Amino acid sequence: MFVRELLVSCVFLMSLAGVSHADEIDPEAHLEVRVQHRGEAVPAALVEVRTSEGRQRLIAHDGQGRFAISPYTAWTVRVQAGSCLAGEQTGLAGASGSAVAVELESIRESVVRIEVTNTEGKEIPHAMVDFAGGEHGCRPDGTQRVDARGMGAWTLGAGTYMVMIATPGEPPWEAELVVPSGSVQDVRAVIGSSRATSQARL
Hints:
This protein is 9% helix and 52% strand. The protein is rod-shaped, with a radius of gyration of 25 Å. The protein has two helices and 17 strands. Mean pLDDT is 86; it is low at 1-23 and 196-202. The protein folds into two domains: 2-106, Immunoglobulin-like, CATH 2.60.40; 110-201, Sandwich (Immunoglobulin-like), CATH 2.60.40.1120. Strands 4-3-6-7-9 form a five-stranded antiparallel sheet, with no helix packed on it. Strands 1, 2, 5 and 8 form a four-stranded mixed sheet that branches. Strands 13-10-16-17 form a four-stranded mixed sheet, with no helix packed on it.
């Protein structure tokens, strides 16, 4: 009802300005959606558009989607890419439709806490930590560091990762880490030992 009244009001205003409905309103209006994460196109994202007329869905294989939409229709766009990237935008279509860029944000519901020590149990400060594997957006980017007490905590999405820890003068320590959804996991990395201990709590 609100959308219909808005459309009537817009047409009335255009008539006052001497512009006809047929000249201004495109009966084949579209909503153009661009999906991105940190400014880069995200392929294979699921895009859903909701309006008062219903919902439409498609897979944006190249980070772009195009939907038919009525002029002056309120819309909501929701996007999901894998397990850890999602975004949402709302707006109102113009006479010929709209264009929107949806910036996806990382959704990480699990926590991994890492303690780095030597074989004598003494903490190793500022060790470098790298995470590999998992889906795009599910893990921290680049090299991380533990603090001066040899401790660090990071949020990740559910998945299986390789954790690699480097310290001066020692071979890299690495282990496979399975991260359940919504868990808190403690990992003790003993430099000089290939054995990893971890405990996950849901």
